[in-house]
Structure to design on (1248 residues):
């Protein structure tokens, strides 16, 4: 079994590349919180971390979740 | 485009109901409506196994096929959602669903059971993402917030996996390889078809030992 | 692109073709019958009516939930807290908007739980709403609870307590504290009772792991879990003996299953086929209460096959040869006759443990709650000592504590026999704490009746009822108890409910301080018209402070929300009473009080300044907060931070975290691990039992020491004399010398002695041997003794209970005379045992008031084997009466299942609110009754107490049942 720390480095290259280019945890949290306060604005798609369809995207939150399932 | 799926690893599920209460909590699901539940087979005897079950967001969803008012729709990621404004509460979807997912707030004859309710993969409904109207009818829209369903995210043993079907299949395959044993993923053939492409492994071994008293 | 939103719903329509009705889930649901479906089908719908009015979906009814969607533009903050249920320590991020707890997010970064939660953890946000909470102070008037003000409550209760104190002495009041309090509150309550002038105070640890704490500490130094849940990932075998972790500590199973998937063998030995057993490689059933025959059966094979770790035993263990003599009496046939396990099975477990090292033995209440609990846990320690499974990563005794802070409350909280930090009650201990508190020793003494009573351990929570009911001439204090204060503790977790109600009748005053009315409110109102007060306390989500998980890691909770309704935090209530009693100045001398609320940071700093014994001295609030912010830097397998601001620390600074915070000790992840330096969390066994016994050295042998220690042999604990002899005294600073002169490592308030010892690689508490023989206990070598209510009269003759004790924790205590007064098994042929359910916790009022949990488990039940059911003509789902030798009768549903063996009846213990078939709904304050109510198993449990700690026997007694 791999430790948390070594997990990042041992993630396969394919997956690693797929996760590039996404915003950090702080950004994701900020968006979430803003979303609760101002739902209408968010629905209009003002945040850069949100693609137009507002559906699934591999955020740092989700990457962190996937990591915990593999520890 | 990533395809959203659920996978319950029965080797890990301990029937703790963390998923069930996570769902209740996040979506404020009322008493009596169970979008997710844990099913246990061979309760109390060797071979006991549990699985967390909810709407699997099937590829060819039978609910969509039978709905007389076409209230269902599917998102780009394969999440099966429905429109409560259109739903007439007929219950056909419940009879069609292989997972017993559709829930109704009341018992009763046709038309009296209220609007159907089910797991949304924490992706809300037709109303604007994150809006109050959406929350009241369907619960939270975590997917639009860059998160996954609360049930999977909070699973006590990481048995219930949710997310990109390719990623969770990979995670499961790694586990099975490490264990050197495993079992077919329950429900995947029914929900997502193409059984040849599922993460499959040899049959399950039962715990050894006696059951003496 | 498929459509997602309302205006674009065309494309999803009619896309599906095939209907797969054949594999309908409801089909297989009908074929199975588990605990939940079985109850639902019995037609129960408790609470459904009430809950329907709160439906959030406007398609069902108009949403009323206060938290549904706060006003736009509200302030949103995320506060990090920790689940308040079990001892795993699962972190929770609470999203708070305009002061309302609106959402709960998993904390993936927590190295303890990685975001995972069980049903209880996933539901803690409900505490932020708490519709069934006790909302304001109340008073019982003519059998009904009436609202009163806080002023009136503090004054009336305070006046009554002062009057009792004056008329009958401070000992006439019994304080029942809480393992639900955070460390600071638990510590303050300990101090509070002492300043009131009494040692009559206790908390849940008495009835949960007191036998562990005493038995294990007396074996090797500290009575706590040796390693962490996380460290199980490093093990090769795990033996669960007396733990159903899958229900009681669900998230720990994440680590257990990691181990299993990496090849570790998981073995469960239990009277029940538990959900933990369902996840094991092997399961074997034993008769309840026969852990020692099973363990000795294993040791018999271990010794006979030479599987013991001879080198380890020689260097680090005292008295193993004495144990071996006893073990050799337990031949396989004797073992099988006692516990029911055949030789082949016992051998298999022994061989698996011996050949898959390192490994753990894991236990909880299954070992502790027996009249011989102290002996059972020591037998477990001996097994691990024999195998050399102690002091290693991946091996040890993983003792799962119960409540979220029962470890911390045990360590620094309200115990009848000790001041904070296991200092005891001797004059030196009092002087130590008087110095830390900045109060005069003579003043403290003056608060008590006498110096004798000041140093005499108080009664235990398991026996307070006898403190009321026992004849005055038989008790070892002046007055009988006249008042009881239940401060965060359920009554239905204690045995002998029938007598408890008698005691409640007799008291002058009952006070409940709790977020919920608790079963105390209902039981008291059942038998009284007045003299009961209910004071609403806030939960841990409504205050800040630290809590200690089972692995000895401390975590700091941020305050999530302000106290709900009219509730106040426990420490504010303590402050208000201390003012009423007139010792607020002394009690809060070092602690800042703002608007009646004492500072939790200051309280922890005071704990830090005094608690050197167990290393609660290095965990300053600042260090703990830094850990909570940087969880992601800690490794899941080792718990150690790699880089970042906490570099080198172990998560939560697991105690002992030696010396002052400035020493920056990283905490001790695995106790007694000599492969590390003490400064890096290494340790050896404590030298706490002397230098020599029967001509044998009690110090570790030459060459056995923590890594890089300057002393390469055994050595006694450090004090000013030893430091001088070693020539290390001059390494102290002048300021340290001034404080350390005449002191030892525990009482030197400068921390200098500890600092210098660690600098030389030495453990401050010395380097001794573990004791397989604890000569100060009733059975120095652990002996099997049959429970008082045994199903085997033939074995009672062979393994009788102890002799009765005339004075034991201030009370006479029965063993043999009660055991041998009758053959109870004639009329009550079945074993009655109790345990936990995943949905509920403790006495259960809190969790049964949470609709998300209550819905999952709606009725009290008893598990009975099909054979016993058929013999009595009982069908699954029917009501039965379960009756015990106390004549108490419990009306419960029968769940007929192979989970229990024939001859055993299992009942969960979290229920209350029914009394022998009657629902007590009208005895609760209006609107504050739990949603789900049921018979409490402890209404019917019998007499029986551990011969060292007064632990109650809950796991093995007798019963019979009949169709209701």
């Amino acid at each position: 079994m791999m430790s948390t720390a070594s997990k990042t480095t041992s993630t396969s290259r394919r997956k690693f590349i797929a996760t590039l280019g996404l915003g950090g945890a702080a950004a994701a949290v900020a968006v979430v919180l803003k979303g609760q306060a101002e739902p209408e604005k968010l629905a209009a798609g003002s945040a850069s971390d949100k693609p137009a369809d507002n559906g699934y995207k591999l955020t740092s939150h989700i990457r962190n979740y996937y990591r915990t399932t593999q520890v | 485009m990533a395809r959203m799926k659920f996978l319950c690893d029965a080797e890990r599920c301990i029937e703790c109901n963390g998923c069930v209460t996570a769902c209740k909590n996040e979506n404020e699901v009322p008493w009596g409506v169970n979008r997710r539940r844990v099913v246990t087979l061979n309760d109390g005897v060797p071979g006991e196994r549990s699985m967390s079950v909810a709407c699997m967001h099937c590829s060819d969803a039978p609910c969509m096929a039978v709905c007389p008012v076409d209230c269902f729709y599917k998102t780009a990621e394969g999440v099966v959602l429905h429109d409560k404004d259109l739903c007439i509460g007929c219950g056909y979807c419940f009879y069609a669903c292989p997972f017993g997912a559709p829930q109704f707030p009341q018992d009763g004859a046709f038309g009296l059971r209220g609007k159907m309710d089910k797991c949304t993969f924490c992706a809300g409904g037709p109303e604007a993402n994150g809006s109050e109207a959406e929350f009241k009818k369907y619960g939270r829209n975590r997917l639009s917030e860059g998160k996954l369903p609360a049930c999977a995210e909070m699973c006590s043993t990481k048995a219930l996996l949710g997310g990109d079907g390719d990623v969770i299949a990979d995670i499961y395959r790694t586990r099975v390889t490490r264990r050197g044993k495993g079992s077919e993923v329950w429900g995947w053939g029914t929900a997502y078809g193409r059984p040849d492409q599922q993460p499959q492994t040899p049959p399950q071994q039962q715990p050894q030992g006696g059951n003496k008293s | 692109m498929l459509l997602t939103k309302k205006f674009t719903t065309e494309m999803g329509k009619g896309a599906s073709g095939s209907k797969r009705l054949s594999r309908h889930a409801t089909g297989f649901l009908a074929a199975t019958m588990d605990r939940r479906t079985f109850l639902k089908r019995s037609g129960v719908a408790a609470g459904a009516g009430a809950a329907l009015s709160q439906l959030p979906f406007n398609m069902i009814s108009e949403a009323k939930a206060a938290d549904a969607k706060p006003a736009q533009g509200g302030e949103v903050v995320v506060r990090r807290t920790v689940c308040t249920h079990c001892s795993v320590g699962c972190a929770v991020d609470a999203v708070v908007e305009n002061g309302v707890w609106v959402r709960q997010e998993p904390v993936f970064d927590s190295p303890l739980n990685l975001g995972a939660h069980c049903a209880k953890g996933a539901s803690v946000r409900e505490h932020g709403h708490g519709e069934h909470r006790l909302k304001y102070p109340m008073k019982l008037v003519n059998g009904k609870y009436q609202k009163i003000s806080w002023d009136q409550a503090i004054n009336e209760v305070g006046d009554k307590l002062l009057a009792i104190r004056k008329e009958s002495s401070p000992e006439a009041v019994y304080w029942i504290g809480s393992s639900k309090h955070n460390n600071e509150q638990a510590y303050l309550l300990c101090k509070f009772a002492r300043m009131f002038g009494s040692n009559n105070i206790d908390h849940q640890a008495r009835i949960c792991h007191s036998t562990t704490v005493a038995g294990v500490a007396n074996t090797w130094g500290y009575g706590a879990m040796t390693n962490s849940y996380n460290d199980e990932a490093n093990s090769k075998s795990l033996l669960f003996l007396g733990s159903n972790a899958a229900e009681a500590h669900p998230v720990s199973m994440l680590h257990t299953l990691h181990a299993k998937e990496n090849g570790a063998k998981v073995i469960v030995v239990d009277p029940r086929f538990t959900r933990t057993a369902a996840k094991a490689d092997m399961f074997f059933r034993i008769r309840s209460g026969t852990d020692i025959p099973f363990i000795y059966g294993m040791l018999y094979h271990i010794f006979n096959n030479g599987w013991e770790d001879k080198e380890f035993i020689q260097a680090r263990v005292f008295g193993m040869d004495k144990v071996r003599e006893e073990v050799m009496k337990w031949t396989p046939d004797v073992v099988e006759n006692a516990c029911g396990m055949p030789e082949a099975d016992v051998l298999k477990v022994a061989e698996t443990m011996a050949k898959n090292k390192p490994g753990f033995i894991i236990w909880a209440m299954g070992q502790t709650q027996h009249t011989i609990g102290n002996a059972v846990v020591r037998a477990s320690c001996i097994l691990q000592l024999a195998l050399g499974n102690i002091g290693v990563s991946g091996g040890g005794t993983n003792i799962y504590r119960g409540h979220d802070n029962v470890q911390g409350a045990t360590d620094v909280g309200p115990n009848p026999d000790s001041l904070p930090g296991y200092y005891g009650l001797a004059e030196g201990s009092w002087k130590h704490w008087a110095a830390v508190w900045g109060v005069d020793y003579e003043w403290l003494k003056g608060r008590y009746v006498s110096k004798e009573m000041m140093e005499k351990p108080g009664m235990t929570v398991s026996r307070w009822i006898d403190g009321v009911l026992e004849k005055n001439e038989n008790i070892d204090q002046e007055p009988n108890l006249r008042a009881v204060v239940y401060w965060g503790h359920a009554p239905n977790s204690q045995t002998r409910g029938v007598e408890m109600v008698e005691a409640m009748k007799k008291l002058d005053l009952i006070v409940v301080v709790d977020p919920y009315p608790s079963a105390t409110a209902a039981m008291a109102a059942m038998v009284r018209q007045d003299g009961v007060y209910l004071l609403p306390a806030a939960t841990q989500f409504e205050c800040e402070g630290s809590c200690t998980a089972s692995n000895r890691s401390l975590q700091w909770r941020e305050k999530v929300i302000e106290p709900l309704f009219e509730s106040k935090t426990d420490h504010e209530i303590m402050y208000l009473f201390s003012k009423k009693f007139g010792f607020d100045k002394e009690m809060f001398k070092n602690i800042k009080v703002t608007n009646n609320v004492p500072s939790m940071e200051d309280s922890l700093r005071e704990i830090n300044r005094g608690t050197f014994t167990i290393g609660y001295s290095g965990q300053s609030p600042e260090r703990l907060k830094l850990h909570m912010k940087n969880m992601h830097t800690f490794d899941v397998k080792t718990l150690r931070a790699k880089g970042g601001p906490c570099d080198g620390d172990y998560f939560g600074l697991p105690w002992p975290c030696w010396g002052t915070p400035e020493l920056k000790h990283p905490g001790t992840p695995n106790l007694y691990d000599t492969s590390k330096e003490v400064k890096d969390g290494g340790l050896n066994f404590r030298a706490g039992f002397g230098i020599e016994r029967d001509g044998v050295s009690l110090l570790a042998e030459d060459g056995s020491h923590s890594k890089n220690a300057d002393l390469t042999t055994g050595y006694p604990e450090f004090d000013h004399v030893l430091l001088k002899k070693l020539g290390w005294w001059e390494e102290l600073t002048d300021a340290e010398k001034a404080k350390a002169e005449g002191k030892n490592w525990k009482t030197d308030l400068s921390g200098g002695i500890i600092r210098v010892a660690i600098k030389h690689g030495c453990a401050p508490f010395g380097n001794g041997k573990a004791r397989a023989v604890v000569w100060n206990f009733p059975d120095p070598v652990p002996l099997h003794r049959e429970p008082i209510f045994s199903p085997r009269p033939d074995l009672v003759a062979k393994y009788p209970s102890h002799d009765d004790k005339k004075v034991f924790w201030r009370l006479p205590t029965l063993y043999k005379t009660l055991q041998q007064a009758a053959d109870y098994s004639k009329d009550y042929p079945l074993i009655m045992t109790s345990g936990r359910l995943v949905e509920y916790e403790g006495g259960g009022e809190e969790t049964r008031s949470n609709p998300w949990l209550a819905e999952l488990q709606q009725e009290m039940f008893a598990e009975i084997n099909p054979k016993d059911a058929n013999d009595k003509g009982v069908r699954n789902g029917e009501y039965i009466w379960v009756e015990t030798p106390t004549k108490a009768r419990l009306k419960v549903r029968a769940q007929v299942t192979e989970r229990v063996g024939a001859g055993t009846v299992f009942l969960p213990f979290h229920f209350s609110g029914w009394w022998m078939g009657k629902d007590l709904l009208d005895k609760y304050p209006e609107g504050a009754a739990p949603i789900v109510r049921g018979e409490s198993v402890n209404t019917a449990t019998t007499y029986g107490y551990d011969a060292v700690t007064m632990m109650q026997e809950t796991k093995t007694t007798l019963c019979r049942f009949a169709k209701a």
